[in-house]
Amino acid sequence: MCFRNFTKWSRWAGLVVVVAISTLLPCRFSQDRGVVPGMAYGQVDGGYARWAQSPILDKFVDSLTPVCNSSAPVFSSLGYCIPIAQPVTSDSTGKYYNIGIVDYTQQMHSQLYDQNSNDLHPTKLRGYVDQNPNAQPTYTTDGGVTSSVAPSYLGPIIVAQHDTPAIVTYENLLTAPFFLPVDTTYMGLTVMGMAQSPNRTAVHLHGGFTPWISDGTPFQWFTASGDTMQPNVRGPSYVQVPGMSDPGAGKWTAYYTNDQSARFMFYHDHAVGTTRLNVYAGMAAGYLITDSQEQSLYGTVLPNNAANNGGLGIPLIIQDKTFVPSSGDITANDPSWNDNPDWGTQGDLWLAHVYKANQDDSGTPDPKGRWDNGKWVYPPVQDPLPKPSISGVAEANMDTPVVNGVAYPYLQVAPRRYRFRILNAANDRHVNLQLYYEGNTPITTSPLPSGQTYVGDADLTRPGPPILQIGNEGGFLPVPVEMNNPPTQWGGVPTSTTMPTPYTLWMAPAERADIVIDFSNIPTGTRLILYNDAPSPAPMGDPRLDYYTGDLDQTASGGAPATLPGKGPNTRTIMEFRVVGTGGETIDYPTFVTDMTNALATIYPATQPPAIVPPGTFVSTRDTKVGGYANQIKSLNEDFDDYGRLKQNLGTFAQHLNNQGINVSGFAYVDPPTEIATKGQTQVWTIANNTGDVHPIHFHLVNVQVVARTDWANNPVPVDPNELGWKETVRMLPGTNTTVAMKFSLPTVPFITPSSIRLLDPTMAESSVNRWHNFGSEYVWHCHMLEHEEHDMMRVIEVYQTSISPENFLLLQQ
Ligand SMILES: [Cu+2]
Predict the structure, then answer these.
(1) Residue 56 C-alpha to ligand 1 middle, in angstroms?
(2) What is the model's pLDDT at position 501?
(3) How many angstroms separate the alpha carbon of residue 531 from the centre of ligand 1?
(4) What are phi and psi of 57, to 5 degrees?
């Protein structure tokens, strides 16, 4: 359970503090993440790092997983493609899909071997599978699933047409013990002393303009009919689509309007208490909306060929994983991993399951610690509970980049333009993407001659072709943005507390980038590296989480040995492009950029709503009114939970005493809602980030306009060119206010949507403070670093048809 109690609620109403905007200052900056200087280190916790490193893998030996193509099947070198979902039926009301949720396995690198043999070891995963008997792909992979169709990682992609609804029935088929560590102290997994199933699922269409009953918020979970703990149980916010028959045991139907312009979204798990685990395990898949305006660009400014999946482009879905190493390595670094036979073996997914604090509970500094122990900060957390043996952690930054389900993939490209649809689907790791020529010094050369770079690494002195960004989460940008070229590298030292400036294509978790790269002038035989140097966590960075060739041996501080040339773990070399063969095109790049600029100048105003605050309007985040709307103050905060573990929260700027006796802002997810709108209302929020982290804040239902940023001294912090247009995941920089504007329209649907009426905290018994509440149309806003979201950086957004009291249960429809 997260830090919260009913006495705080009773104080809450009386302690709302309206903070004058002119005095908007951090109530508290982030906790010190370092160890206490000058102290002698003991052999704490047996000297264990409690942190594993993946087996050493060669880079760029497996090809990128392509999208399946029924007419000319093409697979990765590992034998996979990402299927496109096939509707089971279509009529004037929309396209209907059946998608199962299953455990399965898939090989993610050709050197992930079984522990007891030299056989390949497909990694245990859970994810989505098209249940249409005629689904793609037409081959079968290793599986063990009940469907006749094999699941494939990150599939099936739903490709929807603007304004044609998609009605998806999901079936939870998860019945085996979860293969990842489940912390039962997190909200939702123990209800009034009763253990809850870890195999709950809730499916959220991220970016969708969706009625709340189909949004897939945390309490809209459902279990499998064969669940061993809670068969066919539906969460307190589970609602069927009105007018449709009950989908049946273990199922849930969602109605997606697709009343949006062309854009790249994704659907992923959102179940209370297990979101971070389910997504890390693979529960994420692409969702594209296309429209006639986008299609009019195919063959002109956008490519139109098989390699680009028509004109839709190639998905590059970037994640980070750590694979369980050999039994010897795991025993040396993280021996308690072996205590649970359900967790994976060599080649399966590893996840930290010990809250490895900078000080143990006796106060002895631990040089291998990673997060603060609230018992030993000042002022200390009062009477912390003993930390659970299986614990969630503050952040899960892993050591191996995986793109489309392949560790360190390569992609062969012809000398022509390619459109890529990039999604950062990592749990917590940000990336700062850049493109360089690959080094050409053989790996056998030692020592590395000065000024040279090994094969397999990026030569930072030789920038590749520019990255031209044309879209983000909200669809097309008003103006294409050429990522500064040569790219700007993060220098390894934050130049300010606000952001490691400068940067190139910075993508926080859940951000998307629609980009075009022109390889037409790159000679055949060239290899290029997609490079990342974002610090993790951003912006301050922990050097133990930055893996690159020649890094220092950090085993003494719980990190990895030095990374060898050409091998992992390496979080800087994401993937390799190989320019091969013919089939190229002749492109004059400046003319292409001009043509793209002209195309977006037409398409953007035709497909996107107008700006709430006219572009060019000067806005200070301290203005009391922005664009004529009251400027509401929100906050992002750090705190400690009842166990003395770091946690994050968000909410208004109202302050209350925490368990250290400090006045802090922010509330728990289940505290009474403070973000309230009426249908069609426009609101402006200024969000003050009181923490030391960059948090990607995601808004369900609405897209937002990023209006302004300022630091604490009210100096402007520029909005990035690729943040113009509409977004739903916005980076909040530490020590910075970010002002966003949004309109709370509700989707038009062919049925009457009931209100969300439930206990404020459905995981606790009803009481005088834990009341029944009418949430209207219930959505959420939260950090999309999933370890933060789950613990407990999420709040409700409630939208009402008209302005009413939240306790008025008579208004039953939205
Ligand atoms: Cu966060």
Answers:
(1) 30
(2) 66
(3) 23
(4) -115, 140
Q: Cα(783) to centroid of ligand 1, in Å?
A: 5
SS3 label, residue 293: helix
Please check whether residue 683 is in contact with residue 677, taking contact to mean a CB–CB distance below 8 angstroms. Answer: yes
Encoded tokens for 703 = 């897209």
For the chain, counts of helices (H) and of strands (E): 6, 40
pLDDT tens sequence across 683-731:
999 999 999 999 999 999 999 999 999 998 999 988 999 999 999 999 9
Nearest to 172 by CA among 108, 218, 127, 113: 127
E strand intervals along 487-624: 505-507, 512-518, 527-532, 573-579
**Nearest CA to 464 among 438, 491, 490?**
438
Q: Measure 279 CA to ligand 1 centroid, in angstroms.
A: 16
CA of 636 to the centre of ligand 1 (A): 8
What contacts 377, CB < 8 A, 6 or more positions away? 31, 32, 640, 660
Q: Copy the structure tokens of residue 465.
A: 């072709």
Ligand 1 center–CA 791 separation, angstroms: 10
The encoded tokens of residue 380 equal 């200390």
Are the CB atoms for 799 and 777 separated by under 8 Å?
A: yes
pLDDT of 139 > 80? The answer is no
Q: What is the mean pLDDT of residues 210-237?
A: 98
Tokens for 115, please give them: 């522990």
For residue 1, what pLDDT is reported? 22
Distances in Å between the Cα of 480 and the Cα atoms of 466, 467, 469, 601 are 12, 10, 6, 9
CA of 275 relative to ligand 1 center, distance in Å: 14
- Contact predicate 476/607, CB 8 Å: yes
- pLDDT band, very low/low/confident/very high, at 761 (cuts 50, 70, 90): very high
Task: Check if the beta carbon of residue 401 is closer than 8 Å to that of residue 574.
Answer: yes
| Residue ranges with strand state E in 570-628 | 573-579, 625-626
**Distance (Å, whole) CA 220 – CA 235:** 5
3-state SS, residue 448 = coil
Q: How far is the CA of 395 from the centre of ligand 1 (A)?
A: 9
Please check whether residue 199 is in contact with residue 232, taking contact to mean a CB–CB distance below 8 angstroms. no
pLDDT in tens, 542-584: 999 999 999 999 999 999 999 999 999 999 999 999 999 887 8
Between the CA of 650 and the centroid of ligand 1 the distance, in Å, is: 9
Span from the CA of 796 to the centroid of ligand 1 (angstroms): 16
Which backbone phi and psi does 46 adopt, to 5 degrees? 65, 10
Tokens 């050493």 identify what position? 56
696 CA → ligand 1 middle, Å: 6
In angstroms, what is the span from residue 509 Cα to ligand 1's centroid? Answer: 10
**Higher per-residue pLDDT: 207 or 68:** 207
Residue 789 alpha carbon to ligand 1 centre in Å: 7
Residue 750 pLDDT > 90: yes
pLDDT band at 411 (very low <50, low <70, confident <90, very high): very high
- CB atoms within 5 A of ion ligand 1 belong to 695, 783, 785, 788
Q: How far is the CA of 398 from the centre of ligand 1 (A)?
A: 16
Q: Which of 421, 157, 128, 177 is nearest to 302 (CA)?
A: 421
Domains of the chain, with CATH numbers? 6-30+623-800 (2.60.40.420), 400-606 (2.60.40.420)
Average pLDDT in the 453-467 region?
A: 97
Token pair belonging to 229 = 């703990």
